[in-house]
């Protein structure tokens, strides 16, 4: 009789699918975060989302004067000058269109930007010719209005803005940053749909509201500032440990805080035509270097100095976007501090969400293929921005 065949060993139980499932979840989360940001990369999409107007009001309560910086394309469209907005691409042509359509532009602005005293509107008139200057990558029309308040009025000046409302369907949630210096009363305020007015009188409520509004403005600037987010993502992708990302994030924060305060206070003045291309270049450099040099033991030697230098450049970009142009004061410092804290809050939130996902990804065997795949679109977009911004500033 033939011996019984040896008992077959049971096939080893398959391992639970948790590691593979976890890896898939990590990749999905990272792709969603990166994709959501890159969908905003088109300048037109960012342009049509929201807008910020900048206003400087000074002089006396009887004769206040306001200088307004308004996004050129949006101003021309809102004044129903579509062809002029789309056809004028260079500064010279934009100036010509502003002069040619001065009456229509003035009618639109004076109908939505109002200064009152004792609940009575102060008549406005334009002073001099309009100008064009660049903020970030966008041309802004610079208009000056002179107001004559009623004789005998004794109350404080109130500034109100309804510029570029949602009802026009061009942008939404327009903000008007107002800085005023009227008869020694100085301050700053962000006007919105829910808070459309500010009275030039320092109060405790106004100061607390100012802190909150500038904090929110800082959070929104980083959330919608895709270039700064991509720079931060490049740092996270190239980092190998929590200690390393803590050091690089600290270096970036310290650097951009320094130049942000110096530029916003007028101590340093670097043209946006130089700052914006450098910001785009910094993203590509950090993303590429983080991949090429990530396995070197002296990684921290180049990362910290490089991140600090690029952080100085990003701080100039933060200051340019805020658009403050006034002499130093405690009110100004309070606004800048609140804005900067808002930026740091969002930056910390991104690190807390993204870095643990990247750590999980690094422990998987496919990280050497996946990390370059995550960095590739960052490099492509940043290089496109660089050449586009160089062309604009040329």
UniProtKB/TrEMBL annotation:
Keyword annotations from UniProtKB, A to Z: Membrane, Transmembrane, Transmembrane helix
Transmembrane segments: 214-238, 245-268, 274-293, 305-324, 336-361, 370-387
Keyword Transmembrane tagged: yes
Stated name of the protein: HupE / UreJ protein
Organism: Streptomyces shenzhenensis
